[in-house]
Write a structure and sequence with these properties.
alpha/beta; Alkaline Phosphatase, subunit A; 2 domains; 9-stranded mixed β-sheet; two-stranded antiparallel ribbon; 17 strands; DUF1501 domain-containing protein
């Protein structure tokens, strides 16, 4: 294959002649050669250095959970409730809005958690709460893209795609990257897509847990016949690949997808089947209650997939709309409903991973694209706020029972140990044994990376 490519390359350069045209064509061909996927693009690869985590579960809460109502208590809000905020928001004066919920200390660490999350609070000693997150975009589309791809405007590979590209996956019979959430997502597949990375690294989106992967089984022919057909198709595609190197990334991904679909018939039905779980487990995740059933199924599935070697699993809490945490009004009702739906399942996931010896090697992340304002929008809502918000991490090499960073006394701005989204991404890659400055991909004449030209590993949170 390499010989055929070299011959084709020389012929094309000869046709281009000398000068700028030949140089441009040579650069283009070099990009394409580097973009070529290996024969098995998702084969496990060694990290840059010893990893603390093997896989990631990202619990994404679209809409922006309010930091001052969840994991960042601000007594000053109760003291100044109804008074004009000392800070304008987008040029508008607004009044301070106290949190409707009390905070309680949990565990040996004494970590303060809102009464919205009593079950997660019981896991406080495993949580690393970052109260000083900052982002660049106050709007949902750009905020979601920045958090999931590192870029808020242009189409870039998602976090899961970069990780799959860097490490491959432990289980060749399941996708390396699964995105799971009922209903559509704002910005759609851009949140879990591979952009200019080979298509083999994009996420497999599951929106219907009753029928997670449709058309999985070929009912017309048996496995032996399928294998012979796939082998013949692969030989034809490989021959085609040698003559059409410019199509290499997409065609290699297509070849790999055919093989993955064949292998998934053996393992995917069992992996996605929650029926084998005990009644005690199903109750622990909240599958016996309407309020917690949907996200409980997602969390239980995440545990099953992680223990089967899936590299990156992203759960979207999207029940009831694109951004369920987007409470511009009725903060109390909206956040209470969302917390009720997610609190018990998340705690069950953390406890289940720990009891099975998986949490230390599985990085769990919780958060949205930004936070919310300490001042009121209308009478009982909060607006978008990217300048100081909260996320937490657990397991996977981070210190538990700790708080990193701080916002001011109202919760407006991150004022201590600021952590930008690029820093978060750099830290996630570091925990997986990947140097964010070395994990690059050449496209359109330049090297790209998840963190662009930014990002610092947050070393204070490392275990």
């Amino acid at each position: 294959m390499d010989d055929a490519f070299s011959l084709n390359r020389r012929r094309m350069l000869q046709k281009a002649g000398g000068g700028f045209g030949a140089l441009a064509l040579a650069a283009m061909l070099a990009d394409e050669a580097r973009a070529a996927s290996p024969a098995t693009p998702l084969s496990p690869r060694e990290p840059h250095f010893p990893a603390r985590a093997k896989r990631v579960i990202f619990l994404f809460m679209p809409g922006g959970p309010s930091q001052v109502d969840t994991f960042d208590p601000k007594p000053r809000l109760a003291k100044d409730h109804g008074k004009p905020s000392p800070k304008l928001y987008q040029g508008q004066a607004r009044n301070i809005l106290a949190s409707p919920w009390k905070f309680h200390r949990h565990g040996e660490s004494g970590l303060e958690v809102s009464e919205l999350f009593p079950h997660v609070g019981a896991c406080a000693d495993r949580l690393c709460v970052i109260r000083s997150m900052v982002a660049d975009d106050p709007n949902h589309p750009g905020g979601c893209l920045l958090m999931n791809t590192g870029e808020r405007v242009a189409t870039r590979p998602s976090l899961g795609s970069w990780i799959s590209y860097g490490l491959g996956t432990e289980n060749q019979n399941l996708p390396a990257f699964l995105a799971i959430g009922p209903g559509p997502l704002i910005e759609g597949s851009r949140q879990y897509g591979s952009a200019f990375l080979p298509a083999a690294y994009q996420g497999t989106f599951v929106s219907d847990l009753d029928r997670p992967i449709r058309n999985l089984k070929n009912v017309a022919v048996g496995l032996d016949r399928q294998r012979r057909e796939l082998d013949a198709l692969k030989r034809l595609n490989t021959m085609h690949l040698e003559d059409r190197r410019a199509e290499d990334g997409r065609l290699s991904a297509r070849i790999e997808t055919f093989d993955l679909a064949y292998r998934m018939q053996m393992e995917a039905p069992e992996a996605f089947d929650l029926g084998g779980e005990s009644e005690a487990t199903r109750r622990r995740y909240g599958l016996d209650q309407e309020a917690t059933r949907d996200f409980g199924r997602q969390c239980l599935l995440a545990r099953r997939l992680s223990e089967r070697g899936v590299r990156f699993i992203q759960l979207y809490h999207t029940t009831g709309g694109f951004q369920p945490w987007d409470q511009h009004s009725d903060l109390k009702g909206g956040h209470a409903k969302n917390a009720l739906a997610t609190d018990q399942p998340i705690a069950a996931l953390l406890q289940d991973l720990q009891s099975r010896g998986l949490l230390d090697e599985t990085l769990v992340i919780w958060g949205g694209e930004f936070g919310r304002t300490p001042a009121a929008q209308g009478q009982d809502g909060r607006d978008h706020h990217p300048d100081g918000f909260t996320m937490w991490l657990a397991g996977g090499g981070v210190r538990g029972g700790m708080v990193h960073g701080a916002t001011d006394e109202f919760g407006w701005d991150a004022v201590e140990d600021r952590v930008h989204v690029h820093d978060l991404h750099a830290t996630i890659l570091h925990l997986l044994g990947l140097d964010h400055e070395r994990l690059t991909y050449r496209s359109t004449g330049r090297d790209y990376r998840l963190t662009d030209v930014y990002g610092n590993v947050v070393k204070k949170i490392l275990a």
